Amino acid sequence: MSRRQHKAEQRKRRAELGDNDAPVEEELEKTFDATVEEGAQRLERTFPTMLITGFFGGLEVGLGVMAYLLVLHETGNHLLAGLAFGIGFIALLLAHSELFTENFLMPIAAVAAREASLKRLLMLWGGTLVANLAGGWLFMGLLVLAVPAWHTLLIDTAREFVEAPLSFETAALAILGGSTITLLTRMHQGTESTTAKIIASVAAAFLLAGIPLFHSILDSLLIFGAIQAGADFGYLEWLNWFWYTLLFNIVGGVVLVTVLRLLRTKELVKERREQSPADPDAPRD
Fold it and tell me: pLDDT of 35-60, one tens digit each?
């Protein structure tokens, strides 16, 4: 086959995949553009707005923890409780709040495309992380006061996390926890259907709570509640668990999902970088 015939065949193949001349499928290009735009919007917000959004995220995902404990208390079935936990992710989706681990794929894609700066990314991560924990701590304090009958269950459930030593098993659970949430954000970007997004949210929540995987924010709420309910462990034990869970959540979300997705769309990243200003914080037309 001649070179001209080969190029003609390539154009024909691209026409079958979509009506563009990009080196990737049309749907993938649309998803990439939406990912970068959403990431840039998140990074362009003021720091107080980032904090408020993160604080509400901690409060709203608490609804999932409350549903999880309710079903677990009434049935003793972890799988049913995992399904109920999806209420928290639905609340995050429909209320447009955020968890720390939801800010890997989209904001990093925006930074890679020079739509925002690394400084803004670090501000988003730090602000969202602290605000998530603060909102979750407050919610669990109210829950502990409201439902004393759950205290023993809450302490026993949290103990499984806070007493788990750093090992290959716990590291793998945390890596999968981070990658699951980041993949969820990718699935949300891949569809405009609210119904499909809700189904994806419930599925991810089921895996996180049903296995259970280790998640730095979600499981911290259980530990905070247990401490407030009078557990024989405290915030130092939580911190000893939290640091490695947070680290491996980042590894799972950034390495297993975000980096691989950016490599898949590297040509599109290159095109966006060429169209963006040298200074990502500079105003764009």
Answer: 888 888 999 999 999 999 999 999 99
How far lies 124's CA from each of 40, 52, 108, 187, 223, in Å? 11, 11, 11, 21, 24
Count of CA atoms in the C-beta half-sphere (13 A) of 10: 11
Helices (H), the chain: 3-17, 26-44, 47-75, 78-84, 86-95, 105-112, 118-146, 151-162, 168-189, 194-210, 218-228, 235-250, 260-264, 266-275
Angle (deg, nearest 10), helices 105-112 and 266-275? 60
Fold designation for 27-275: Glycerol uptake facilitator protein (1.20.1080)
Judged by phi (left if over 0) then psi (alpha if -120 to 50, else beta), residue 60 lies in alpha
**What average pLDDT does the chain have?**
88
Closest CA to 45 of 90, 106, 93, 101: 106
Q: Is the pLDDT of residue 5 over 70?
A: no
Q: What is the pTM assigned to this prediction?
A: 0.85
